[in-house]
Design a protein that fits this description.
Helices cover 71% and strands 0% of the residues. With 192 residues, it is mainly α.
Amino acid sequence: MIIRPSVIIRQVTAASTVLTAVFTGVYLLLDGVIWFSLAITSGTIMYHFAMRLVVGLSMNKFIMKPIDYDNIWLRPKSFERNLYKKIRVKNWKNKAPTYRPDDFSIKARSLEEIIQKMCIAEIGHEIMIVASYFTFLFAIFTNDWKTFIWIFIITSSFAAGFDLLFVIVQRYNRPRLVVLLNRNASLQFNNH
């Protein structure tokens, strides 16, 4: 049985929320460093999963107009093709989990719709990369923020790196679909 990423994200968000509340409560009652560490750890996990859930759902709700996939931000850059060859995106891109696989299914959607979903996914993951670093604010709740800030830097960097993989997959695949879309449009134009 395959568990979908959407289920995992929701379950981890719920579990880490409960654990954060429990560990925070125990810490406030017993004042032990272990309870504090567990509260901060579960709170950080909750933040990273909940933030991704909120950003992902918000992107699909609030972007109503078609996105110009050839705008300066989304347009492929000259260095990308060589970079993607060097890091062998073609070999691992299909192993990346997809929150909503139907959004990228050629059987369920048109090429134009898939390209739009890819733009939304890329922008969403770019927002998540930036938002990953907001956990630095959790260091404020520690007695010795200079000691604990490194934990947040490391976890934020890993989380941002994870989202970067999804940005790379979108930027690798989208130009190929745009070429296919343009070919189909050209064929239809020539057939009329």
